[in-house]
Amino acid sequence: MICKIFRKQLLFTVLCLFLYVLGCTGHKKPAHEMAEPMPPSSPPKEDIQLSSPKSVSDTAEHFATSYNQAVQDRNDFQIAASNNDYQRSQELIRSYNQHMNLSRDSHQILQEIAEKQGTGDITIFFPTNSAVISENDFQYHRLVRYLDSLERNNQGRKLVFVIMGSASATGEENHNLVLSKARAQAPIPIIDHYLINVPHSFHKVYGVGETDSPKNVDETVNKRYQFVKIMALYEVMPPRTNGTLDFGEDLLSEPDVVSLGEPREYTNSIGMKFIRVPTGSFMMGSPDTEIRRDKNEIYHQVTLTQPFYLQTTEVTQQQWYDVMGTNPSHFENCGMTCPVENVRYSDVMMFLKRLNEMENTIHYRLPTEAEWEYAVRAGTTSAFFNGPMVIEGDFSTNPYLDTVGWYYRNSGHAPHPVALKSPNPWGFYDMHGNVWEWCSDWQRPYPFYPATDPKGAKTAKAKIRRGGSWAHYPEYCRSAYRSWFDPEDTNPEMGFRVAITRLERIVPPPVKTVAEEKPLPKPESAPVPAPRPKVKSKPDPEPIPMPGPAEITHCIVIRDISFDFDSSRIKANMQPVLDRAVEILKNTTAKSNFTAIPVPWGPRLIIWRLA
Question: What is the value of pTM for the model shown?
Answer without folding.
Answer: 0.47
